[in-house]
Amino acid sequence: MAQAQVLNTAGAAVSTVELNESIFGVERNDTLIQQAVLRIYANRRRGTHDTKTRGQVRGTTAKWYRQKGTGRARHGAQTAPQFRKGGVAFGPHPRSYAQAMPQKMRRKALCSVLSDKLKEGRIHIIDDFAFTAPRTKEMIAVLNALGVARKVLIVLPAPDVTVTKSARNIQGVRTTVAHTLNVVDAIDSDHLIVTQAALRTLEGVLTSRQPSAVSRQPEVGGNDTGHSIDADNQAEAES
Fold this sequence. Notes:
Layout: E1 2-7, E2 13-19, H1 21-24, H2 30-44, H3 103-119, E3 123-126, H4 136-146, E4 152-156, H5 161-167, E5 173-177, H6 183-187, E6 191-195, H7 196-207
Parallel strand pairs: 1-3, 3-6, 4-5, 4-6
Antiparallel strand pairs: 1-2
Helix pairs in contact: 2-3, 4-5
């Protein structure tokens, strides 16, 4: 098994941890990643768009002029699509954009992204956040000690209000829970900060042979979508 250093909040190595090769040693599969990303964005679509047909718009159905002898077309109602304020022909109507994807493929796509991030040195494993109270200043010090910037995703084993409040006012920094991590969250982050407990939770979810019964979780971070790795065909609508 591959090994990685475990850092403290000061950026110093305190121990090493063994990583599961089936998660962090997977070859990158761009086709699978693209399919997983498209599925997430498609499932977020509300599908509430709608247009009125000629039978739904308000307008007279009285014939404009006589049928023959004028040289004009044989028009009837003014609600026809070619007229102003008429109905829309072949317009969009409410529908579901949900896409299905097997659980193994979804997990494989996430493992592919995580393996690629690890090879690039963009996954940082820390022992824990020892925050006694929400302090943005302390979170900034931790980020500086780890040498991360721009888009940072903090992965926690469970919702932690102290860590979340410490990070939510820092631009580009988000928090999420291990069992709700998805491909889009991982790709959209330049660096991932994962606690040891969150790492074990993530490995347990991705290596489990049983379908996850985890339902949609509440938001942890300001921009976190809170989608489960094993959420089936449930619409992943943005709040």
